Amino acid sequence: MVYQEITLIPNDDIPPYAIWSKLYNQLHIALADVANGHGINTIGVAFPDYRYSEQHDKGTLGSRLRVFAPSRDELDKLDLPLRLSRLSDYVHIKAIADVGERATGYVVVERYRHYDLGKQVERFADFKNLTVEQALEHCLAHKKKAKNYPFVRLKSETNQRQYHLHVRQYTVAKPQTGVFNTYGITNINDETKASVPHW
To answer: Which Pfam family, just one, is annotated for this protein (predicted)?
Structure first.
């Protein structure tokens, strides 16, 4: 397995969240291009400095991103130096390197979505074939508080609307194989959660 590490460069004019937005928008487009153009869905990411406190319900993505792939050829096709060339004042990209013996563990990175009550009720009513009133009663009894996981602000290419990509990253005991979406993370509904090395 190989990887490339991207580090945010501190900038007095642009806050880190804005750099994350610029970086991730470009990465998302690049991952969609290699998925559509080459059928590659094996490129995953991790945030080495990710922190989230359950107790305080807050966290941070940190200032580094690692992009992993099974082979050098796949990262060559992604071509991060070209894709992120416009951001050279804001990010530093290391050359492709082998993971080798660096990993001390493995993490799963997934998107966290919390649906508002109205959407939860609609989905549950459809799923269980219940009336809206019955679904509302169930959802109110079992409603979970939304988690404040770290996020990246993104803009949809199709409708230009802004949205948040909330990131949940957690350790797993052993490597797990699977596919990654065009955010470089595993889908929350996937049976097998794909993992990436962590150190």
So the answer is: Cas_Csy4
